[in-house]
Amino acid sequence: MSDPVDVLIIGAGASGAAVAWSLADTKMHILCLDQGGWMNPAQYPSTGRDWEARVYGDYSPSPNIRARPEDYPINDDNSPIKVVNFNGVGGSTIMYTAHFPRLHPSDFRVRTLDGVADDWPIDYDTLKPFFAENDRMMGVSGLSGDPGSPLTEPPMPPQPLGRSGARLAKAMNKLGWHWWPSDTTVATTDYDGRARCINLGHCTPACAQGAKASTDITYWPVALRAGVELRTHCRVREITTNEHGMASGVVYYDKDGVEQFQPAEVVIIACNGIGTPRLLLNSASGRYPNGLANSSGLVGKNLMFHPYALLYGYVDAPTDSNRAPPTCLWSKEFYETDPARGFVRGYTFQFGRGIGPVVEAIMSEAKGILPWGADHHRVFRRLNGHRVSLAAICEDLPEEHNRVTLDPVLKDSHGIPAPRVDYTIGENSAKMLEHAIARAREVLAAAGAADICVNCPILYGGWHLLGTARMGTDPSRSVVNEWGRSHDVKNLFIVDGSVFVTSGGVNPTSTIQAIALYVADQMKQRLANLFD
Amino acid sequence: MSADNALTPAQRDDLRTIAAMIIPASDHYNVPGADDAAIQADMTATLGRDTALVRQALDHLARLAGRPTASLDPARRDAVAREFRAAGGNAAATLVRVVLQCYYRDDRVLRSLGLELRPPFPLGYALEQGDWSLLDPVKARPSTLRRAR
User: Which residue from A24, A168, A209, B148 could staple onto A105, CB 3.0 to 4.6 Å apart?
Assistant: First the structure.
């Protein structure tokens, strides 16, 4: 058995890294276990001529397709949206698009404002200083003053508009709709040891330049220098408890596959909205027969993705194609509730710059707009490098039947039950998607695009894994309290997207990390009576 | 299994035939077809995790054709190809993807498209700033942020 540690963090991704860094100044013995290892940017896809093909293989966003040793399988057969993630130091920040919007103030008050779901037990102002701290640590580029978003002060200027952005901006102006350059974690200047973006264009499957912030190159180097220990290739099977009902440590498999026990005074889970409920449910015991921290019965329930509608078309002049980051502009024109639309809450439009030739060929052939045979070459030359696109990221409301459970059959390489996802798109989300598709068609028409294609929902679009261990003040209606501590197990904390009460209509990483920093701050303020 | 014997000779023949049907050579654009020997070699050498599905697709194609696809008359071959793509599911889609991803990284093809023969890293690309005055009307808008209290 290993020596006990003061704090054990499970997961070295977006939230695990942030909480580790923040707690490091307590000088406690902090250990983080991650099932993956350190990434090697020299092996990232954009370094090779097969850069596009690898997104269908070892850099697929789907763990089921990618199937690296550190991945665990997910049974998402009963979901129209498949789970995507990344496992390794940095977690899914290795494979995200680097969009960095924040939830809006209204997102924390949906019951009060719109009569649906629940209010959060915290508000935007509570998180505000932690958003700012996180922006500084991750390194955000953007433009302050967006009239449609909470005020931010990005430390770096926005990405250039480029050809694609300018064309789409003109279209939005023609319609009189809001748009703004996106806040992203792509460094537009040299920043804190990171080199500025050189437009590799292939941002999502990891950035070889290191311009895109992932926590392996932002939080972790600082946390390690401050004394945090990070043990890689260690997959946690379960959290154990003692006779007082407190977490006593974890059982995990080390890099050699040998079962180990690691005792700890405090356990923090940072495994995302799928991995966290999986671990809690797999930690069932005689003391906690329905899973750990699950007296509410809500562990795994209320799973929220963001259903996406992707629309794209082709214009007569060349776009930026793959030669720029995919992040570009956003629009909050339809973000806040308007009852006249027939649904509550709203969505963000994210605008894209284009894609590379291989993905263009594959997507267009599958859509039936790129023919086989003699006309293939002519049509491909009209499509390739001429794409403009936008995607609506729709707020998903919590519904208990959308849930994560343990699959009775499927197991990972260590024999741990795999998560099973049962999910359907709710009525409100379906109406929102329909509205978004109609508006997106108007944008593309205003941009002069033809051959409009629709992908709805995006099949491999389950990037945002939220709500499965929700935060609240009522132990019968939530899993953790308003500062991330389990209602049932007083030395167990959750800091990832599981704690979201509602999803908002934006990419969640900024808010997830702000919550992790906030929970860490609360812990530091309460160290003397943390378990009371 | 080595790349050389991932597919049987008959499967390789059918792969070559269907690849040429997807992307034939073009004198006009000065490009090879997807049945080009170098492109075919790339496909078989890099099949990797797609091998099983590509084999499945080729077995399906062989069942539809009933004999080597290349030996069918053109009309029958087209009909078989259409049915293969329409009813072939994930396996057919994988085969088509393998053909396209190898074709559109071939030097001759990229040159014809006016693209550089290199990966994105380490040189990257230039991105023009664009006209930021486009943002002026948006800056003039009032805040649309909804009050939360």
Answer: B148
Count of CB contacts below 8 A, A vs B? 179
Cβ atoms A511, A127 nearer than 8 A: yes
* A337 contacts B148? CB cut-off 8 A: no
Q: Establish if A274 belongs to a structural domain.
A: yes
Tell me: the pLDDT tens digits for A415-450?
999 999 999 999 999 999 999 999 999 999 999 999
**Would the pTM count as exceeding 0.90?**
yes
Which helix (H) or strand (E) is A404 found in, with range?
strand A403-411
How far is it between the farthest Cα atoms of chain B? 74
Between strands A229-231 and A30-33, the pairing is: parallel
**Which A-chain residues 342-381 have CB contacts (< 8 A) with chain B?**
357-358, 361-362, 365-366, 372-374, 376-377, 381
What tokens appear for A195 in the block? 């080199």
CB-based contacts of A72, cutoff 8 Å, min separation 6 = A35, A63, A87, A235, A275, A412, A413, A416, A418, A419
In a domain, A370, yes or no: no
Please name every residue paired with A239 in a beta bridge, in sequence order, or none if there are none: A250
The number of folded domains in chain A is 1
Token pair belonging to B137: 């009307």
Give the model's confidence band at A204: pLDDT under 50 very low, under 70 low, under 90 confident, else very high. Answer: very high
Do B143 and A337 lie within an 8 Å CB cutoff?
no
The yes/no answer to whether this complex scores an ipTM above 0.95 is yes
CB atoms within 10 A of CB B28: 9
- For residue A34, the enclosing domain spans 5-354+386-529
Is there a domain that residue A469 lies in?
A: yes
On the question of pLDDT at B3 being above 80, the answer is no
Name the pairing type of β-strands A417-422 and A75-78.
Answer: parallel
Q: Which of A231, A192, A211 is nearest to A38 (CA)?
A: A231
pLDDT digits (tens, 9 = 90+) for B7-39: 999 999 999 999 999 999 999 999 999 999 999
Q: Is residue A374 one of the residues assigned to a domain?
A: no
Distance CA A328, CA A308 (A): 17
The answer to whether the CB atoms of B139 and A320 lie below 8 A apart is: no
- Cross-chain residue pair A320–B85, CB shorter than 8 Å: no
